[in-house]
């Protein structure tokens, strides 16, 4: 009886060993010119990743079709919604047909990466961003109802931005990728200017008063709207970056992963 059990156990281990030996290794991929690979074992991997992100800049301006990444300059958003239900500024703002220019002048100032757990924090700097599009706002400013819809223009100067990515390995067709589970976004502006063309209150004192209010209180408005804006931007860019990373095998940009 004992001998029979030993034979069965031996057969199981043999089958599992054969399954392991038959596992196909990941194929070798050609490294595209826009990627400078980094290695987990490199003690200076943060510097390597920083160099890679800055190396990407001219390629991102034209877009990376093989990664399904559009041009970042101009960068276009079909729609983004920012909703703030706290404080004196309680509004729901929808921005659509948004075009932003100036992203190509970004500089990666720092990177802190825990590549074993696929956590990457990146600090960016943008000297200037020009943004235009259409907007639709409903809500209350202090105790006054606000209803405004039309075209907007904005200039943001000296932008410090940071994003923190929480990723994990994802296996697709026998190839490993990094998939983003969670993303955090933060930003700080030194100066901003706004201009709107209110199609509802156009040509009257309300429309002009709103322009004056926006520019005279820009710091307070950004402070109030910032938490909601961070969430909306993180949601959008998580999808944007996932479409890129899910087309870029780990073995290409992190060969010893």
Automatic annotation (TrEMBL):
Higher taxonomy: Eukaryota, Metazoa, Ecdysozoa, Arthropoda, Hexapoda
Signal sequence, start to end: 1-17
UniProt GO molecular function: RNA binding
Keyword Signal: yes
GO BP annotations, alphabetical order: circadian rhythm
Designated name of the protein: Protein takeout
Annotated PANTHER family: PROTEIN TAKEOUT-LIKE PROTEIN
InterPro entries according to UniProt: Haemolymph_juvenile_hormone-bd, To_sf
Protein keywords: Biological rhythms, RNA-binding, Signal
Family assignment from sequence similarity: Belongs to the TO family.
């Amino acid at each position: 009886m004992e001998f029979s059990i030993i034979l069965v156990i031996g057969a199981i281990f043999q089958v599992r060993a054969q399954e392991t030996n038959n596992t196909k290794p990941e194929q070798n991929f050609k490294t595209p010119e826009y990627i400078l690979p980094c290695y987990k074992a490199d003690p200076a991997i943060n510097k390597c990743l920083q160099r890679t992100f800055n190396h990407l800049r001219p390629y991102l301006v034209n877009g990376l079709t093989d990664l399904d990444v559009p041009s970042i300059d101009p960068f276009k958003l079909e729609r983004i919604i920012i909703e703030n239900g706290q404080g004196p500024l309680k509004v729901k703002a929808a921005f659509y047909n948004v075009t932003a220019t100036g992203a190509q002048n970004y500089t990666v100032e720092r990177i802190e990466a825990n590549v074993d757990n696929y956590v990457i924090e990146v600090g960016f700097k943008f000297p200037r961003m020009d943004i235009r599009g259409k907007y639709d706002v409903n809500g209350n400013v202090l105790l006054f109802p606000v209803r405004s819809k039309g075209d907007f223009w904005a200039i943001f100067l000296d932008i410090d931005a940071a994003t923190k990515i929480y990723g994990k390995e994802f296996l697709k067709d026998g190839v490993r990728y990094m998939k983003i589970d969670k993303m955090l976004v933060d930003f700080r502006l030194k100066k901003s200017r706004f201009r709107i063309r209110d199609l509802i209150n156009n040509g009257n004192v309300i429309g002009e008063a709103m322009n004056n209010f926006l520019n005279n209180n820009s710091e307070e408005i950004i402070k109030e709207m910032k938490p909601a804006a961070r969430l909306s931007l993180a949601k959008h860019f998580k999808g944007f970056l996932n479409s890129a990373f899910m087309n870029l095998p780990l073995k290409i940009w992190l060969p010893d992963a």
